[in-house]
Write a structure and sequence with these properties.
Layout lengths: L2 E7 L7 H11 L5 E5 L18 H12 L2 E6 L8 H10 L12 E7 L7 H13 L3 E2 L6 E2 L15 H25 L2
Parallel strand pairs: 1-2, 1-3, 3-4, 4-5, 4-6
This protein binds flavin mononucleotide.
């Protein structure tokens, strides 16, 4: 059976490195795993007043989360944290109260930056939040990619063998991590 992974980019920028990295992950997915990148740009800001009559983009997000076997978050680093658009999507996926759709889904976080730290601060802030919403986050291997412009061309094709190997290695571990929970789910 096909494993459905939903994936979120924390950058809305057209030429976003984070989105290009996520697309490279999508292209590199192992056989049997499909990755759908979810558009979070139309979600309203989190607001409990909207919960009585959920806006359509929130309903769409809820449907995508419900149908997914696993989740990938790709984040840029904003002031040593992850981006607000990603937090907004995570918050909506956990609401209204008692309706946390993230719980018990296997997940991984990948981070990149054009500079030296590879979004280390962002990934680690995000880890704290995904633990709370009870996603089963893969602890190891971690994925931080520094100086990302050296790893891809302008279209986002990975041009460096070490980077493609890094992506493949992360997929191998994440595929096994997903399988661990899928096999328990089916028992
Ligand atoms: C509000 C803001 C804060 C930022 N803070 C950091 C930071 O703390 N660390 C860092 O390495 N880069 C920081 N940057 C630079 C981003 O890493 C860079 O713009 C990156 O390309 C954003 O990801 P994207 O290409 O996916 O849009 C910041 C950028 C913005 C817009």
């Amino acid at each position: 059976m096909e494993t459905k992974v939903i994936a979120f980019s924390g950058s809305l920028r057209k030429e976003s490195y984070t989105t290009k990295l996520l697309k490279a992950f999508q292209k590199s997915a192992p056989v049997g795993i499909t990755v759908e990148i979810i558009d979070i740009s139309t979600l309203p800001f989190i607001n409990e007043d909207l919960e009585a009559d959920l806006p359509q983009p929130v309903k769409d997000l809820h449907a995508k989360i419900k149908s997914a076997d696993a989740v990938i978050f790709a984040t840029p680093e904003y002031n040593r944290s992850y981006s607000p658009v990603l937090k907004n999507a995570i918050d909506w996926g956990s609401r209204p109260e008692g309706n946390n759709l993230w719980k018990t889904k296997p997940a991984t976080i990948i981070g990149c930056s054009p500079y030296s730290l590879g979004a280390f601060g962002a990934v680690n802030h995000l880890r704290q939040v995904v633990l709370y919403v009870n996603l089963y986050i893969m602890q190891q291997p971690e994925f931080y990619l520094s100086f990302i412009a050296d790893s891809m061309d302008e279209q986002g094709n990975i041009t460096k063998k070490e980077t493609q190997d890094f992506i493949n290695g992360h997929w191998k571990a994440f595929g096994e991590w997903i399988e661990k929970f899928n096999s328990t789910k089916n028992n």
